Structures are given as C-alpha cells and as structure tokens.
Task: structure prediction
Amino acid sequence: MRVALMVTCVNDAMFPETGKAVVTLLRRLGVDVEFPTAQTCCAQPMVNTGYLDEAVPVVRTFVDAFAGYDAIVTPSGSCAGSARHQHGIVARRSGDAALERAVAETSPRTYELTEFLVDVLGVTDVGAYFPHRVTYHPTCHSLRMLGVGDRPRQLLEQVRGLRLTELPAAEECCGFGGTFAVKNADTSIAMGADKARHVRDTGAEVLVAGDNSCLMHIGGVLSRQRSGVRVMHLAEILAATEDAAVTA
Amino acid sequence: MSGTFVGMPAFPEAARAALGDTQLRHNLAHATGVIRAKRSRLVTEVEESMPESGGWEALRLAGAGVKDRALRDLETQLVLLEERLTAAGATVHWARDAAEANAIVVAVAQRHQATEVVKVKSMVTQEIGLNEALEAEGIDAWETDLAEIIVQLGDDLPSHILVPAIHRNRAEIREIFLREMGKVGKPAPEGLTDEPAVLAGAAREHLREKFLRAKVAVSGANFAIAETGTLVVVESEGNGRMCLTLPEVLVSVVGIEKVVPTWAELDPLLRLLPRSSTGERMNPYTSTWSGVTPGDGPQEVHVVLLDNGRTRALADDVGRQALRCIRCSACLNVCPVYERTGGHAYGSVYPGPIGAILNPLLKGTGDPQTDSLPYASSLCGACFEACPVRIDIPEVLVHLRSKVVDGHRDDTVPKAEAVAFKGAAYALGDSRRLAWAERASGLAGRVMTRFGRTSLPGGRAAAGRVPGPGVGKWTSARDLPAPPAESFRAWWKRTDGGRR
Ligand code: SF4
Result:
C-alpha cells in the first residue's frame, strides 16, 4: 500500500511537529509513509471564502501531487473534508473534465488520520504513552463533515497514562471557521472565550483536537487568558512513547 | 408602531453591538438551551420508537422529498391550488413583490372601511412590510401571537422565527405590558406579575376585545395543500384560531413555496415541524380552512400568493433547497453565532442560519448588508444536522459566498481580500512558490515575536497584540504562535524525512 502524507498548508508552515508526529506514528505502525513534495494546500481557504476560481489551480496541484497513492492521510478533519466534499464542486466549476475525473480518483482515498488508523489499519492501540490529564474537542468538520465519530476517543482511551476528562458542550463550534475568525472577529472571539472557559472547567493540562487551526484559535484565547492549558494535536499524543518523546 | 430592518448595518457591525449586551446573550443562551434540549429529547424518541422505519433520518428524507416534489412541479401545483381555492369560494390574488401584495391587502381592508386588522402567523407580512403599508393608509394592524405582541408593544423587531421576543426576559415583558397596553387598548391588570401564565392571561384579555371588534383579519399559512385548496396554520396559543374564525373577512398572504401537493404528504411535515420547533410531539392547534363556508367563519376569504424573490431563489440550483424551509427555527437554536449575536444582527425577519441564506437568495446579492450574511457563519454544520428537511445550509452559504465574490470580479479597484486570495492561489498553485513563501514567513516570525514578548504554554514563542488589519483582528484577543524557523517541507528535505 502506497501511503502519502498530506501535511496541509497550515501544518507545513506553522505546525511542523504535527507532520513529524504523523511520520513517527505511521512508521511505528509499519507504514512507509511518503511525502509528495509537490503538494501545497487543500484549497479550503479559497472555497470557504467564495474564491472558487482561485481554488481551481490549487485543486489541480492537489490531484497531481497525490495521483497514484492508495491512501492520502492528513492530520486535519477540515482538510480531509475539503478534499472529500469540496474538490468536486471546484472541479465542476472549472469545466475541466480531466480534473473532475482526477478528483473522483483522489477524493475517496483521502483519510483523516483517525479514520486511517481505525478503519484502514484497524488499530486503536498505537502503543502511545502520555501521562497527563487531557480533554478532547471534536472539531466541527471532523465531527459533522466527515463523521469521524468516536474514533479519536477509541485511540485516546488506549494511550497509557492518559486521563481523559469530559469537555462540557464539546460539540459546540470553537469559533475559528477560517476567515470567519477575522471577518467576524468579535463573534469568533466570543465563541472562543466560551470554549476556553469550558476547557478550563475540566481542569485538564492539555486540550487535544484533530485540527491545528481550531487549536491555534482556542490556544490563542487560552494563552491570552494565561490559563496555563497547553493545546496539542492528537497526532503528537499518539506519537509519544515512554522511550521517545515526539521527534521535534 | 413596530420598527423596520431597513438601514441595518452589515452583520459584523450589528453583531459587535449585540455582543456587548450581556443581558441579551444571557437571555438567548438560556432560551435556546432549553428548546435545544427539548428538541433533542423528541428526536431521540423518534429514533427509539420507529427503528424499523429508519427513525428520524427517514422522516427527514420524507419531508425533504415532499417539499422537493412540490418545488419541482411548482407551477402546476399553484395553478391547481388556485383552482381548488376558487372553487371553494376564495378569491386568489397573485403578487410579484411586496408592493403588489401590500396593495391587495390594503384594498380589501379599505373596501370594508376597516380602521384596524388583527394578524396571526405573520412572518411573511413582516417580510413585505405590511404593517407599515397599512399604517400609511391609517389602518392599525394588531399582532396576536403572544411573542409578536411583546415585540409590537415594545416597538421592537422580531429576533427569532418562532419566539420573536426570545431576546426579552419575563421582567422586561411585564414592564412593556404595564407601560404600553393601556395606550392601545385594554390596559394590563393591576398587580401584574412576571409569571408566564399571568403575562399570557393579560395578553389574552387585551386581545379579546380586538378579536371581537375587528372586521378584517390577516394571516399567513404554514402549508397550502394543492389537491384540496386548503390552507394550514399550526400554533401554540389558540389566538390564531380566533383570528381565523371571528372576523368577517380573512386575507391570507402565502409564499408560493408553501404549497404541498396532497394531504398525505402533509403527514411527515406535521411530524417534523413541532418536534423541531417547540420540542412538542404535536402542535396544540392545527387549523385548516378552504374558502368560504356559509354561515360559519369569515364570509369573504382572500389568498395572496406571493413571489417576492422566491422564483429567483428557485432558479438557483444550489440555493433552491432553502425553499424547503418550514420555518421551524431549529437551525437558529443550535447556531453558535445566532446564540451570541441574536436575531437583529441579521437585519431581517429571517435571522440565523436560514436567514443567512434566504435573504441573499430572495433579494439577490450585491448589497453590502445582504452580502455580509453568507459570511455570518463559522460553517460548523450544526444547522444542517438540525434541519428537519435536510437543507445543507453550509453548502448554500459557501455557494452564496462565491456569488458575492463573483459580483466583485470586475471591480476597477479590487478589495484587499481579493488581491490576497489571488496571491495565495498563485503561491499555492506550485509547491516551489509555497516553499519560498514559507521561508519568508519564517523570517517574519522572528520579527513578529518581538512585538509580543510572550510564549504559549509548552514554550513556543507567540505574538501578542500586533497592529494591522488581518493579524490585528486575530490578536485583539488571541495570541498567535510565531511561525517556526523551519517548515515541515524544509525539514523533510533537510533530513530526508527524518532518515538522516
Ligand atoms: S432551515 Fe431547516 S432548521 Fe432552519 S428554520 Fe428552516 S426548516 Fe427549520
């Protein structure tokens, strides 16, 4: 099975540790993951802001970069959702039949990390060790656009040393929403503040989620509040073991 | 009396004002929380009571299917509806827009020398500004839904589809009743408390004399059944039934999307609506009527079939699903944006997620207020999940955003955002260009951290408050991690994917 890592533009530029954690984790599970260097972005920022024409070259780059892989794995529910549900819209708009066919090839093979681990590899115990109090925020796109369900929980429950605490109003949006965070900054911050309050109420040391964009927003609020709560991507927790912390 | 949404600022500004109102936020969070819990209990009940028939999801699909069938075949259904209504003794009028509809209602009222009318189920009449049109002709229009009375007496605007006065609490309502009722009719009783039952009683007393006096009533309709020419109104208080039966003349203003082909097809809709809206199994009152029955009820019945942008919405192949909406308000009650900003920020009688798509679909894009609405969402998808007729609101929002953007493609001076996205498309169209941009951002990161002198838990450097339009808005209340010195791509290349 040829497996490609779609690291996502946000992780590539802002959170390289998450990409490294996915590599560490997948190798430990016996997957020889490749990084097609021609990849850039899933085009979601353009699509969700209404710039569909601008999304066309980005989707084209995506399908070219990932052509021929059996699985495309990404540590982002949002970007997996974009590949699965938005690339078709962009391709249709472009009127390019070849692009439409290419999207039909890559879209269904794109997996969010926990889907890939649980559904494709069939593992829930990835041999991780993380002795901390953790609370989990299911991000909207992984929850509703992809329907990852309880896969992240199944994985977290098998992590040795980890104590999982219930996040109140977990399924409510954190207020990130891509350009929403800037276009409607006041509303976004009000939502983020409520999410941060719920996180603090759990008494957890670490807030974990499957999307760094949402974590950047919630973490930004938590940091400004000097809460001391750290945010971490799920992949980094799953990659952690007794012997080696994440290769960073 | 009763305000107007005309001249409302675009959503972000209106929202900012609402966000500062802590009482409003408290009222909304409480009220939507209560309805949300009731709704989800009843949805679970359907799940559990009818597993063999596919549960709630099957019911949603059935409801969506009924509305889609009606919309696909709209012209035939409407002509049939007109035919059956006319045969039953009603007069059917067609109105292309608000002005035509208002003129029809005003003419009927004037023919009967009415100086006042009573109203029920009047969202569509709010849409067309009927009260203002009647007022201009010296005719008073009295709302009779409890929540609508509160809004009208408070000289306020509705902020929710089902509970237009959701932004008011009991104490505020008592104040409004004490202050205003006497000015326009029977005053509030002495010793009025803020018990819900006492407030409802006061409203009932106040209304009774209006029902008995008014010659003309105006209503909307929840559904219009084509095969029999029957209008349907569902409600909780029974005031509507008074309105529909006591006056001599009844004028119903009905959006053309309300048509349902047959009685049998009404079934899933009548099960979906109360569960999704009030969290009840059935509506307390369901009234149906068809034309005129001699000696019983109104002896003159008019039905105004209103377009007002609906055919425009129907012509939009992605957006037309919004016309399935049965105005249950479930999407409002689960919307995290609505919960914080309230309904007024949407500048329309249709607020919340459905308002964010329906207004641009009905009015067309191109106006700054309307164009701000598709962006008034974080695209979290809670609305789609809650919608009983499966309107994919996030999909329509994104589609409408592209219409807003496309409307500006020929601008002589492009918006900064458009320039930025063109630049991003260029950088993201090729990985070498992206790698270059990332190196630049790594450098910028080093500059940026100097502004904030802060670090995130875990030790990573971060930028605190940074000036400037985009980043400035982000950092007004959120720290921003500084870009790392090395991108993932650069790390992979340097270490051969960690193997070196
Ligand atoms: S869009 Fe759906 S959830 Fe919202 S009011 Fe209409 S029917 Fe109800």
Summary: The pocket of iron/sulfur cluster is lined by residues B 161, 276, 325-331, 354, 386-389, 391 (CB under 6 Å).
